[in-house]
Design brief:
ABC transporter involved in vitamin B12 uptake, BtuC, globular, mainly alpha, about 70% helix, about 0% strand
Length: about 375
C-alpha cells in the first residue's frame, strides 16, 4: 500500500474562522438628529409661548402677567385690565395664532410644490385672487366681517389657483414650476389692476379696504373668527398629509413619478390645502405678506430638507413671527399702533437677506 502522505479527509483539521458578529449600525447620527429636532421643537414652543404672553400683556396699556392670568381664569367685569385682556387682546391673539399657522404652512407647501425657495402664497396669485373677491364682496355686497369675507376669499383663491394651473399646464411638459410661477405673476398683476379699478370707483369700499389690506389683527372679534377655525384645521391636516408627497416632488417630476407618486393628485391636494389656508388667513387678517416666504426658511434651520418636519416647524414659527410683529407694532408707535402686516414686511426683508447671505442654500 502506497502512502501518499496525505491525511484522510475525515482526519483533516479544519480551522474554522470564528463567525463574525454582525456589527450594529451606528446610532449616533439618528440620535443626534432626534435630539436636534427635540431641542428645536422645545425652543420654538418656548418662543411661541413668549409671543402669546407678550401679545396679552404688552400694549398701550401695560398689564402684568399676574393680572392677565387672573383675567383668563377668574375674570372680573369691574376691572378695566380684565376687560382689555378678554375683549381686546385675546381675540387678536387668537387671530394671530390662526393666521400665522395658516400662512406658515401655506408658504411651506407652496415652496415644496413649486420647488422655488422664493415662493409664497402670493406667487401663484392666490392672495391676489382672494383679495379681488373680498374687494368685490365689500364693494357690491356690503361685507364687513371675516365671516362674510371668508367665502369670497375661498372662491377667489380657488379661481386663481385653477387659472394658474390651467395656464401652466399648457404645452408639452405640463405644469412645471417655472410656468406656474410665471402664470402666477401675470395673474397677480392682472388681479391687482382689477382691484384698483374697483376701489377707485367706490370711495366707501376703498375706506374699508385700505385698513383690511394693511394686514392687521386689530378690531377682530371671536364671533367672526371661530367659524374659520375648521377651515384652518382642514387645511393644516391636508398639509400634514402632503408632507411625504412634497418630499417626493422635491426630487423632480421624473424621479417622483418613478417612485410611484401621482403628480396630479399631489398637486391637487397641495392646491386645496393652500386655498383653505390662504383663504382663511386672508379673511381673518388681510393679505399679509412675507410670513409665508420667511417662515419655511427659518424652519429649515431646525428641520433640514424633510418637509414633514418643515411643516411642523412652520406651524410653530408662523404664529410666533406674526404675534411678535403685532407686539412690536404696538410698542414702537405708542399710543397708536402699526399694523402687523406692515411691521412684518418692513423688518422681514433684511432678515431674509441676512439668512441667504450667512447660510448655504438648502435643497428643496
Amino acid at each position: 500500500m502506497v502512502r501518499t502522505g496525505r491525511r484522510p479527509l475525515a482526519a483533516t483539521r479544519t480551522t474554522a474562522r470564528p463567525t463574525a458578529r454582525p456589527t450594529a449600525r451606528p446610532t449616533g447620527l439618528p440620535r443626534a438628529r432626534s435630539r436636534t429636532l427635540t431641542i428645536g421643537v422645545l425652543l420654538t414652543l418656548l418662543g411661541l409661548s413668549a409671543a402669546i404672553a407678550a401679545s396679552l400683556a404688552v400694549g398701550a396699556r401695560g398689564i402684568p402677567l399676574e393680572t392677565v392670568w387672573s383675567a383668563l381664569l377668574a375674570p372680573d367685569p369691574t376691572l378695566t385690565d380684565h376687560t382689555v385682556v378678554r375683549d381686546l387682546r385675546v381675540p387678536r391673539t387668537v387671530v394671530g395664532l390662526l393666521a400665522g399657522l395658516a400662512l406658515g404652512l401655506a408658504g411651506a407647501v407652496m415652496q415644496g410644490l413649486t420647488r422655488n425657495p422664493l415662493a409664497d402664497p402670493g406667487l401663484l396669485g392666490v392672495n391676489a385672487g382672494a383679495s379681488l373677491f373680498v374687494v368685490a364682496g365689500i364693494a357690491w355686497f356690503g361685507m364687513t366681517s371675516a365671516t362674510g369675507y371668508v367665502w369670497f376669499a375661498f372662491i377667489g383663491a380657488a379661481v386663481a389657483a385653477v387659472i394658474v394651473y390651467a395656464i401652466g399646464s399648457l404645452g408639452r411638459d405640463g405644469a412645471t414650476p417655472i410656468k406656474l410661477a410665471l402664470a402666477g405673476t401675470a395673474l397677480t398683476a392682472a388681479f391687482t389692476s382689477l382691484i384698483t379699478i374697483v376701489l377707485l370707483s367706490d370711495g366707501e369700499a376703498f375706506d374699508r379696504y385700505r385698513f383690511w389690506a394693511a394686514g392687521s389683527l386689530v378690531s377682530r372679534d371671536l364671533e367672526s373668527t371661530l367659524p374659520l377655525v375648521p377651515f384652518v384645521l382642514a387645511g393644516a391636516l391636508l398639509a400634514a398629509v402632503a408632507g411625504r408627497m412634497l418630499n417626493a416632488l422635491a426630487l423632480g417630476d421624473d424621479l417622483a413619478r418613478g417612485l410611484g407618486q401621482n403628480l396630479v393628485a399631489a398637486r391637487i391636494l397641495c392646491g386645496v390645502a393652500v386655498v383653505l389656508l390662504c383663504g382663511s388667513a386672508t379673511a381673518m387678517a388681510g393679505p399679509i405678506v412675507f410670513v409665508g416666504l420667511a417662515v419655511p426658511h427659518l424652519a429649515r434651520w431646525f428641520a433640514g430638507p424633510d418637509y414633514r418636519w418643515i411643516l411642523v416647524f412652520s406651524a410653530l414659527l408662523g404664529p410666533t413671527l406674526l404675534l411678535a410683529a403685532d407686539v412690536l407694532g404696538r410698542v414702537i408707535a405708542r399710543p397708536g399702533e402699526i399694523e402687523a402686516g406692515l411691521v412684518v414686511a418692513f423688518l422681514g426683508a433684511p432678515v431674509l437677506i441676512a439668512l441667504v447671505r450667512r447660510t448655504k442654500p438648502v435643497g428643496l
